[in-house]
Amino acid sequence: MLSKKQARAFFLGGTLVTFLIFIGLTIFSFSKENDQTNRENLTAEVVRGKEIWESNNCMGCHTILGEGAYYAPELTKVVDRLNIRYDGNGEEVIKSILMSPSPWQLNGRKMVAYGMTEQEASDVVAFFNWIGKIDLNGFERVVSPLAKEKINK
Amino acid sequence: MKYKSQKVAYWFFALSMLLLVLQITYGFIMGFARMGMDGLHEFIPFNTARAVHTNLLVVWLLSGFMGAAYYIIPEEAQRELVNVKLAYVQLISLALVGVTAIIGFHFNIWEGRKFLEIPRPLDYLVVVNVLLFLGLILTTLFKGKQQTTTALVLSMGLLFAALLYLPGMLPFDSQVTDSFFRWWVVHLWVEGVWELIMGGILSFLLIKLTGVDREVIEKWLYVIVGLTFLSGVLGTGHHYYYIGVNKIWLVVGGIFSALEPLAFLAMALFAVNMYRKGEKKHPNKLALYWTLGAAIVSFVGAGLLGFAHTLPQTNIYTHGTLVTAMHGHLAFWGAYGMIVFAIISYSLPNMTGRKLYDSSRGRMAYWLTNIGMIGMTVAFGVAGVAQVYLERKFKMDFMLVQKEIAVHFLVLVLCATMFATGITLFIIDFYKHGRPSDEALEIEE
Question: Domain residue spans in chain B?
Answer without folding.
Answer: 1-147
